[in-house]
User: Fold these one by one.
Assistant:
Number 1:
Amino acid sequence: MLKIGLTGGIGAGKSEVSRLFAAHGAVIVDSDLIAREVVAPGTDGLAAVVAEFGPEVLREDGTLDRPALGAVVFADPERLKALNAIVHPLVRARSAELEAAAAPDAVVVHDVPLLAENGLAPLFDLIVVVDAADEVRLDRLVRLRGMAEEEARARMDAQASRADRLAIADLVIDNGRGLAELSARVDEVWAELAERAAAS
């Protein structure tokens, strides 16, 4: 089994790279998806979030109001730490379960947005960083996700710098151009990962 840590700043295109890896046969362990699962209605995770942040972070239907919670935690690093202290251990436990279920010769790609921020690089055999210039990412967040520029900048500023992510990279996938170039680069990286997995 080859354990890959896949990361990239918000707007870099990490989700698209994850999708392309999955098409090649990678086992994807998506931290964002798991982070939603562990705070679904009826979970201990959601109960802990409500205990910490109050019932105002819940929607009327009992689900987590992500924009309301985001407005609190992205404006205050201490509140973000409190949220991470609840969610991250739950995500790690579920990720370990999914990894354990993969085949012995699998390439397991852990899609982890905050890999650099949380010092998680040593947990993986290789780190793949999806990279795009800050101005490209900002444009995507505003144009494609409909974020206000101020909100987009705040989200970017809450993450590690581009330099910090590149410093932990074993392999870099440049996503500053188009989808054709991205797909070709993912093909190259996948070939290398598959070769390493076979060798291990």
Number 2:
Amino acid sequence: MTEYRRRNTLRYVGYDYTNAGAYFVTLRAHRGLRVFGEVVNGVMVLNPLGRIADQCWTEFAARHTDAQVDIHVIMPNHAHVLLWIMDTGSAEPGAVSKTRKFGDAIAGSLSSLVGAYKSAVTQQAAHRGLIPEPPLWQRNFHDHIVRGEQELERIREYIRQNPARWRC
């Protein structure tokens, strides 16, 4: 008998991640390797791969009209982004509007948007010969559903100050 190991999810069980709102997302480089640059005197200095990662967030809204990047930062071994999923008016607020089988992607969901970003960075980096082979990213990502204006401002400040707080 073959034993299958279920992969744990970091997502909030029962929550519809296509809901409009703000999400604080952290993506880590594979094995936590410092591949995007370095922090020098509290300032993030991006290398060519880090510049691609940064540019992909900058161009994100042009490719994904259902999402907007509020603020982001690329760090030596991870990236933070405050990502807004926009209300498209297709479902009632708070209603779980889409169902799926395990493994199926839902267009416009947080997972599909983060996956699109990771894919864009990986493809551009591989095309320019900046990574020998994938994976560039850790398989999963951490998210936090932002609940309120005060929390939103606290997260923005955290992202802005992240390079200054970096410890080798």
